[in-house]
């Protein structure tokens, strides 16, 4: 199957799952699929600039990275529809709802670091995409905390993807200026 076919199949699956939840990008009325396609765009560009990078696998992860966290989609459905490796990658990118809020990100990062670098790349691309101007209702404290989280992600996933690490560093510097 071509990467274009993989992209189309995966984005349609993800779009339906997120649309069923009436999910939009927080602070906007844009459909959530816009965020997912932006993460996928970062991955497509990174795959062109990274040796030994499985772009097909990474595109699937990029488009599906929030489906377990934000929809009632079961892990088993991802594994059956896509593959065990895709389902495992998405699971690692999913915050564990049973943990305290302050523990969720490090737990996810620790699980990501045990998987292929493409999973690392999707986490980097996700945060790059999320570092847009913060919503107007966010406090200065929340903005600072979000920026700090981005710096932690960049530090923890150092060595995962040089291109995306540089992109994240640039977005962190631009954030909230």
TrEMBL record:
Organism domain of life: Bacteria
Signal sequence, renumbered to the chain: none
InterPro entries referenced in this protein's UniProt entry, alphabetically: MESH1
One Pfam family linked to the record: HD_4
Protein's UniProt keywords contain Chaperone: no
MF terms in GO: guanosine-3',5'-bis(diphosphate) 3'-diphosphatase activity
Keywords: Hydrolase
Protein name as catalogued: Guanosine-3',5'-bis(Diphosphate) 3'-pyrophosphohydrolase
Organism: Chryseobacterium polytrichastri
